[in-house]
Write a structure and sequence with these properties.
This protein has 12 helices and 19 strands. The chain is of the alpha+beta class and 421 residues long. The termini are far apart.
């Protein structure tokens, strides 16, 4: 057999290889040039999905671009309005003799800590028989005034009998549950969670019950409660880091006064009558298309200081005499301003300069209050609807809440209210 000499073919092989590599290089450069610029951010995955199809991603996704706001918001009561239960989030004590609450002559509750999990156990004092034992799964409330607790039973959430009351640092009967009566299965409906979570996917019929998808609950009032689901926003700016104009986010500066008020009134206008299921409303929507005010709150006497700051503010002369005043005129939702009287005084004096008003309060009292506008004109007032009972033989104690009816109050009322601060 004749042997084929391949030496003369080698130049053609190298030429072909060179052409192939050149084509591959040209294709690589073309793809790289025409592909969108990618940043160093990780891919943002959705945590929950609104009924309109937009996805929530959680405040951690906001941190990279809004680090300062993210940090200060973590300190707000809004952020801590709900959370998973653990030793850091539950304020009540589990220490011996401080972990008891006696409901009535025959029933006593004991708060138990077992293997890092917390329980409320009820038993009959007379017979010694255990009545119930419920795990504390969810915390409702930042602890500023108190906390209530929820327990899972399969996919259903129920409020537990015993809550925590901060002013007395003690356990108490949960608000809304009849005093001295055992109530083991009080459903935590979607309307309750709507004001204490950013989002919770309700799986009950018509979205009005107490069944939830545990994987789609966002605890606390977070960025997306006010700015809407933000996956599109985060994804866009992740892929276009050179663009500074915010896209796909609800910008409060572009909203009308009523739209801004509605965003807060959803949870701060008292009991409302639902027209549509909870969690459908988003900032910018018209609130009256989703729920209506309680028909019983027809005048100032019918408006309670607990939960209805919106109607009290609207009845204030300060509010009526300006076209721009809203909740954020005084409150910065990104910061914890509780107790910062100097900050609030400054905001009052933007409209009420010292040269234009005459304070008629006794100078001695004014000095005692450090010329605190809020202490005099928005005193703490006992709620007519929110009560706690500390012990079996104690009377019902009204929760003190700062009124948002900005007014001139009698000195005696002011002193009584301010004494509870």
């Amino acid at each position: 057999m004749k042997k084929i000499d391949t030496r003369n073919q080698l130049p053609y092989v190298w030429i072909a290889a060179g052409i192939l590599l050149t084509l591959l290089l040209v294709m690589y450069l073309y793809v790289k040039k025409t592909s969108p610029v990618q940043s160093d951010y990780q891919t943002i995955f959705p945590i929950a999905t609104h009924s309109n199809g937009d996805n929530y991603v959680g405040s951690e996704a906001c941190r990279a671009c809004h680090a300062d706001i993210y940090k200060t918001h973590l300190e707000t009561a809004h952020y801590h309005s709900s959370s998973l239960a653990d030793s850091g989030s539950v304020k009540g004590s589990f220490k011996k003799d401080k972990n008891l609450y006696q409901l009535n002559d025959s029933i006593r509750f004991k708060m138990l800590l077992e293997d890092s999990e917390m329980y409320q156990q009820a038993w009959n004092i007379i017979s010694g028989e255990k009545i119930s034992k419920s795990k504390i799964d969810v915390v409702i409330g930042s602890g500023t005034k108190g906390q209530s607790y929820l327990s899972w039973e399969n996919d259903k959430l129920y409020q537990l009998q015993v809550s925590y009351f901060t002013p007395t640092d003690s356990w108490t009967n949960s608000p809304g549950i009849p005093m001295q009566l055992m109530e083991q299965r009080r459903p935590a409906n979607a309307k309750c969670l709507e004001c204490h979570t950013t989002f919770a996917k309700n799986t009950a019929l018509y979205g009005m019950g107490n069944s939830y998808d545990k994987s789609q609950i966002m605890y606390g009032i977070d960025c997306e409660r006010c700015h809407g689901p933000l996956q599109k926003h985060v994804t866009f700016h992740k892929n276009n880091p050179e663009l500074s104009e915010a896209r796909y986010v609800i910008n409060h500066d572009t909203l009308s006064r009523q739209q801004r008020l509605d965003a807060c009134a959803l949870c701060h206008s008292g009991v409302r009558m639902d027209i549509q299921p909870a969690f459908l409303f988003l900032t910018g929507d018209k609130l009256t298309e989703y729920s209506l005010p309680d028909s019983n709150a027809k005048d100032l006497e019918g408006i309670d200081v607990h939960g209805n700051q919106y109607d009290l503010l609207r009845a204030s002369t300060c509010f009526k005499q300006t076209e721009s005043m809203d909740c954020t005129s005084c409150h910065n939702p990104h910061k914890n301003e509780r107790g910062d009287s100097a900050s609030f005084n400054t905001k009052c004096m933007k409209c009420h300069s010292k040269n234009s008003i005459l304070c008629k309060v006794d100078p001695l009292l004014s000095n005692q209050k450090n010329t605190n506008c809020v202490a005099c004109h928005m005193p703490l007032i006992p709620s007519k609807s929110m009560f706690v009972q500390i012990g079996r033989d104690s009377l019902k104690v009204p929760v003190m809440v700062r009124t948002h009816l900005i007014d001139i109050y009698a000195q005696s009322e002011t002193e009584k209210g301010d004494a509870k601060m």
